[in-house]
Amino acid sequence: MKLATLRDGSRDGRLLVVRRDGEAGAAAPDWPTLQRALDDWSAAEPVLRALADELDRGALDGLPIDPLRLGAPLPRAFEWIDGSAYLNHVRLVRRARGAEPPPTLETDPLIYQGGSGDLLGPRDAIELHDPAWGLDYESEVCVVLGDTPIGTTAATAAGHIRLVMLANDCTLRNLVPDELAKGFGFFQSKPATAFSPFAVTPDELEALGGWREGRFLGRVRSTYNEQVIGDCDAGPEMHFSFCDLIEHLAKTRRFTAGSILGSGTVSNAERSRGVSCLAEQRMIEIIDTGKPTTPFMAVGDRIRIEADVDGVSPFGAIDQRVVAAGALSPTEVPV
Asked: How far apart are CA 281 and CA 275, in angstroms?
């Protein structure tokens, strides 16, 4: 099953059940928003699946979907938690800022909590307030959780994963070192995150061969200024699965339905796969030549993030341009 949120002028938008090809969708009268459905998933899921089946069988035409009218599947969420499950990424970016990876890198997941009240849609612009901050994109996979009790283990965590989607978790790289030097984590260095137009149930991905044991088994492609800069395999090098990450974050507290958990930047050690952020490219340049030559993002730049499972794009594309601060008209600012 594939879900989306149509912008309708309200903060949380209108939930759509989407046909498998992503071209048409229909609203479910009793479930106006995705958050409402997640809050009562046992009742909502059968109704939404029945509607999805009608769309996929052609029993219901649905309405054409305009990608420009879609927001993030959850335009605001109770929590946005991001891990760093790809250790190649951790090693490269730590090296870039002259920091050693933690000694527990392979046994204890890295997690931070980002802002969740203002989540961007897949076509929303990225506002650049100061080029000196070092704007970077980050291509990630993420999951939407149902109610998750304290003490959830990796063995039972899959039962709490409701949906899977993509994220562009932007980072202001030049603000990171000073923030981390305070010993209190990311804050100003993490602006609003954007999400793919479609959120997909794990069984939908399993049917494509794209999901197993808490990992997305597909490629995540990053196209930067019309050039494919990364085509990374999301499965094999995800050191901590989503189930592992859930066990870690649920150690001391519970999480409510609608919490989003990210994988961290998808990263492969094999250079031919490219990169899912500019920081990795710059680090490779430092290793090879002694200095970085790739600049961070600038006004006019474009980043497109899309997944591929045997030629199928299950989540649709995040496709964003960088604009100068204040360049958006009031009608272009996400509600």
From this structure: 6
Q: How far apart are CA 93 and CA 193, in angstroms?
A: 19
Q: Pick from 136, 113, 162, 123: which is nearest to 262 by CA?
A: 113
* Residue reference for tokens 């100068």: 324
- What region does 11 belong to: left with phi over 0, alpha with psi -120 to 50, or beta? alpha
The answer to whether the Cα torsion of 22, 260, 318, 236 is positive or negative is negative
* Predicted model pTM: 0.95
**102-127 residue pLDDT tens:** 889 999 998 999 999 999 999 999 99
* pLDDT tens digit sequence for 303-331: 999 999 999 999 999 999 999 998 876 55
Phi, psi of 40, deg, nearest 5: -135, 55
Radius of gyration from C-alpha coordinates of the chain: 19
Which SS3 state, helix, strand or coil, does residue 163 take? strand
Give yes or no for a contact between 168 and 297, defined as CB atoms under 8 angstroms apart: no
